[in-house]
């Protein structure tokens, strides 16, 4: 299956550069939302759906996964390298914010992984991709949660801007500036569901985890926030920093309830050294 879609990618580099007069294909593409298209592209990694490749611009596809070569050719090369029949894709959450779509996915992609993917669209096709991946934890966290369970229902669409502003403030005040005396401004008491594999529920669970890390001489430092995206009660923050001194990319997904942070998922990925990069677009380029 993977060879089929990888071949389709190669064909796309040629055939999609020309004007496509396939009216049925164009009509189908026009009826799908950008969110639907992004999910279809992710699912195609497992299913081999060749139609999904038409949702990617073959001439302008910028890749920010540093382990993947640029453009459709780089995507195809990764698919060719996957062990036959190994890929599994389960998109748990998908959200749309103007030209961006971001997803939360349970993968088997060179081993079990949890990932956030971010796609940027122009004229109805994908032109840019970022992601963060981490190995799936074998055990639940101290409160019994997995990295992907929890709420999936999008509500409060009229509060998207308000919720994005709250998360922007939280990331800047608490995560970047470290003003922990202001934590109470962002939570409803100790009510806070946590899906990080190492941290328990509640603000108290977060505090205990940070204290344990400090005792081991491990610092988690956020130095810069690049992007805050949201749809209704879900908001994704993309930041750069260090964990234990290693350059790190932080993707944090928050669920907001009644103006407070109620639930949190994350993927924390160590940024590979430049010598290992397969493209020069940067982990946060374009954000």
Automatic annotation (TrEMBL):
Protein name, entry field: SnoaL-like domain-containing protein
Q: Which domain of life is it from?
A: Bacteria
Indicate the secretion signal residues: 1-20
What is the originating organism of this protein?
A: Shewanella canadensis
* Keyword annotations of the record: Signal
């Amino acid at each position: 299956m993977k060879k089929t879609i990888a071949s389709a990618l190669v064909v796309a580099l040629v055939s999609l550069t020309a004007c496509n007069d396939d009216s049925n294909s164009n009509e189908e593409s026009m009826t799908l939302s950008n969110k639907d298209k992004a999910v279809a592209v992710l699912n195609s990694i497992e299913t081999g759906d060749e139609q999904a490749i038409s949702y990617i611009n073959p001439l302008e596809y910028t890749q920010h996964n540093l382990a993947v070569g640029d453009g459709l050719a780089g995507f195809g090369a990764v698919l060719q390298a996957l062990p036959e029949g190994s890929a599994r894709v389960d998109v748990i959450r998908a959200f749309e914010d103007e030209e961006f779509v971001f997803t939360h996915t349970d993968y088997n992609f060179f081993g079990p992984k949890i990932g956030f993917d971010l796609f940027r669209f122009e004229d109805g096709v994908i032109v840019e991709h970022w992601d963060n991946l981490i190995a799936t934890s074998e055990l639940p966290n101290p409160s019994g949660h997995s990295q992907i369970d929890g709420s999936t229902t999008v509500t409060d669409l009229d509060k998207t801007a308000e919720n994005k502003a709250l998360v922007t403030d939280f990331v800047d005040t608490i995560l970047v500036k470290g003003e922990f005396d202001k934590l109470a401004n962002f939570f409803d008491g100790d009510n806070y569901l946590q899906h990080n594999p190492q941290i328990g529920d509640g603000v108290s669970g977060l505090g205990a985890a940070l204290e344990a890390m400090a005792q081991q001489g491990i610092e988690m430092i956020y130095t810069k926030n690049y992007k805050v995206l949201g749809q209704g009660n879900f908001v994704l923050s993309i930041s750069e920093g260090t964990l234990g001194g290693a350059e790190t990319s932080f993707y944090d997904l928050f669920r907001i309830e009644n103006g407070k942070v109620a639930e949190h998922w994350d993927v924390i990925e160590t940024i590979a050294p430049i010598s290992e990069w397969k493209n020069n677009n940067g982990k946060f380029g374009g954000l």
